[in-house]
Design a protein that fits this description.
This protein is an alpha+beta fold. The chain folds into two domains: about 160 residues, no CATH class; about 220 residues, Histidine kinase-like ATPase, C-terminal domain (Heat Shock Protein 90), CATH 3.30.565.10. About 60% of the residues lie in helices and about 10% in strands. The protein has a five-stranded mixed sheet with strand order 1-2-3-5-4. α5 runs antiparallel to α6. The radius of gyration is 44 Å and the shape is rod-shaped. The two termini are about 60 Å apart.
Length: about 400
Amino acid sequence: MLTSLRPDRDAVALAVSGLLGGLLLWLLGLHTQGGHSSLAPWVTLVPLTAMAAAELLRRTAPRTALTIGALALVADQFTWGNLATILMFTDVVYAAVLYGTPAAARRLPVATLLVTVASTIGFLAWFRKPEALLIGLVIGLVTFVPALTGVSVRSHRTAADAARLAAAQTARLAEMDRTQAVIAERARMARELHDMVANHLSAVAIHSTAALSIDDPETSRNALKVIRENSVEGLAEMRRLIGLLREGGEDRAPAAAPTLAALDTLIEQTNVNGASGGLVCTLEDTRDPAAGALPTPVELAAYRIVQESLTNALKHAAPGPVVVRLGGTGELLTVEVTSVFGSRPGPTAPGSGAGLVGMRERVALLGGTITARAEPDGGETEIWRVRAELPVTERTIRE
């Protein structure tokens, strides 16, 4: 507790300068009461010393300082008087408002205003002379004006603290937004990288396994041909993605995103890659040809869903048809891919499950729905069905 009452450097400087200034005025015989007091002149030093002690507590104990200062000021009026005592009291009132409790900061200006008004009225009634107004003015300058100044400074400090707090919160929010943006961009890059390269690498893995396991020159030649085609295409797409990451900027033209118009090429490639596994891929597009163009995010998401579904069929589907169906209802684009569910003969490629996660993320960003599950086909076999419904109106797409 004693440590908390230790005066700061400013308080010590004010107390010492006020005490020395008061001593100098006393030595020079400069008094505020004009020598009308019956007490000895040295008594003036008592309230001066008490006021200097109050100055030491101006910041650590402002209420106590104000009490001591008020008593010292009243006592000073019965002595020869010292201007330094009055000036130090104004600082004590100012400090009581500035460093005191919020309640004190609200009440002191009102209290000092009431004291000023009451004193002015009282002196007018007593002296019955206009000069009494000067006394009220002096009282206001000693009490009300310092309190009002303290309120103003405290308000500015509170506003500055609030501004600093708001700036810190804004910086934290900006950092959170930046982190979330980085995470979202990493997720987007992961989806794009997986969807672009997985199809080619799956074909490479399957046909390389076939070339190594089947001792037939023609089979190996065909497998190597497919491997080379997919390697070249995968390398080209990897270079395109790396170029976007390295050179992307405001002055760079946006790269063309794949659209549903390119599904024919994708299905033809799947037929080539899946021929050894007995897969036959077809496209059924029942959309209205007169319908308007789809938003770019919807086109990209639909293409990637088909691409990933065909990649999964290439890796896991049993021999049979792989059907891609596109449909539309005006506000929704329906994408459906079915394949035979069962054990795939011959070489296979391992899966990580990242493709299904990426499809669900793409659909969620657009506010759509997606299902991926095995269903009975009306006979002894089952089919694996991936079905996504994507909103195509701007008001329903969550960019």
